[in-house]
Amino acid sequence: MLKKRNLFAAIFVNLVLAKTATAATAPTYVPGPSSGKISGAPGQTFVAPTPILSDSSTNATGQDYNPANDNPGLYTGLPTQMPEGLMQAPESFWKRDTMFGDVFGWRNQVSNYGLEFNPVYTGEVFGNTSGGFKQGTVYDHSLNLPVTIYTDKIANWWEGGTIHANALWIAGRSLSTDKVGDISGISNISGYDTIRLQEFWYQQTFWSMRASLKVGLIAADSEFFTSDTASLFINGTFGAFTLVVANLPDPPVYPMAAPAARFLIQPIPQFYFQSGIYAGSTGDQDVNRSGVNFHLNGSDGALIFSEIGWLVNQAAGDRGLVGTYKLGSFVHTADFSNFTTGANEGSDYGIYAVADQEIYKRGGKVISFFTRGGYAPANVNTINWYLDAGVNFSGFIPGRLLDTAGLAIARSSFSHDFSDAQVASGSNPFDAETVIEATYKIQVSPWWTIQPDFQYIFNPSGEKGSHDATILGVRTSVAF
């Protein structure tokens, strides 16, 4: 492992030096139609992708290509520009969309037949410099291996079909688990060390692409409660927030997915409705290690998400500042116990809202803002209230139009019923955990990003008496 890390470090330094040597003459990259998400998820300021697909695998990748995330309101139908011809002159190494480019024409040829394979490597080093329960540094990584097939390119008679599968190779230590003890999740790529299947689904569009049905193994955080602006940030709560992660039993969020069906309808460009029903539990990561243990158990109940959205200036020909506003809910039909009495309270529920809005856009400079909030009943949920907010700045540094800086805050408030139950059992009371994150994503090339990151976590775990933690780290992502 040490030799592999030294080799990775050597390659990383050589690439940085090579890029620095050519930066003076390299022209500014302008992303094309196939550039997809240039992060900031699994997750990542997502530049409006061609979103038949997206991927919950992380909020963060080199271009943050997340091929399983069909964010409503961004759907523009099938690509209008086919892959460039094979007679085109070779692209510059630093300007191509992926590190390996067209691979001697292979990538274009298979894309013309409806097959896309876009692996992305994300690696990071994070350290807890003070607070938490232990100081130290960890390294972890995620290799996302997504395969997507478009049926209309394979068979002219089979229009609107998409088949998607992605595997994850996750390795390394979790700073949250090993050093800090927070519930938010310092990194949105951390998970149990394994190679696993994450998503595997089929989607069919109909009614002139105004509606779609997706069935298979699906991650909820690629479909619901998403925010493009929030996807820049590395802390996991800005993707799969604690209102879901801390309250529901093994929910279908990164790196897990569950057997599910999701229906989406968008009758007009400004409005959509979607709903999904998922198996009630994915099983523990360390038990369902390969992701092929399709956890279906009647006692687990079912998890149902529903969401409506209003889309501002996102239709063809619209001008002005882009915005997305969502209102959603979840219902879990399993039996939940009252923290105070232990009585069976039956099913659980929660509600949430999302606002994502550009507030300034001129001359390549963009400022965008997001906020999300939610509520779940205090008698059966650990997190009673949740709120986050943040702002991103893109294109404000001369010569760095594709770089993005962001500042965000999230607060997870523990329910009084949960806290009282912990005190009754001899533990300290619980209050709230608050995360502040400042980050800067450097778009070195279309296929490579480097992202220094700072986080400060007040009261990790929410338990009174916990030591505030100061987190420093850097992430790099490469799209192959």
Structure description:
With 480 residues, the protein is mostly beta strands. It has a single domain (10-21, 31-479), classed as Porin, CATH 2.40.160.180. The chain has 6 helices and 17 strands. It has helices at residues 2-22, 106-112, 151-154, 175-180, 242-245, 416-424, and strands at 115-117, 120-130, 136-150, 161-172, 194-206, 211-218, 258-268, 271-279, 302-312, 323-332, 348-362, 365-375, 383-394, 404-414, 432-445, 448-458, 469-479. It has a 16-stranded antiparallel beta barrel with strand order 2-3-4-5-6-7-8-9-10-11-12-13-14-15-16-17. Strand 2 and strand 3 (136-150) form a beta hairpin. The longest helix has 21 residues, at 2-22. The two termini are 22 Å apart.
- The CATH homologous superfamily is termed Carbohydrate-selective porin OprB
User: What is the distance, rounded to the nearest whole angstrom, between the alpha carbons of the first and last residues?
Assistant: 22 Å
Question: What would CATH call the class?
Answer: Mainly Beta
| Structure summary, number of beta strands | 17
CATH names the topology as: Porin
Taken from the alpha-carbon principal axes, the silhouette is globular
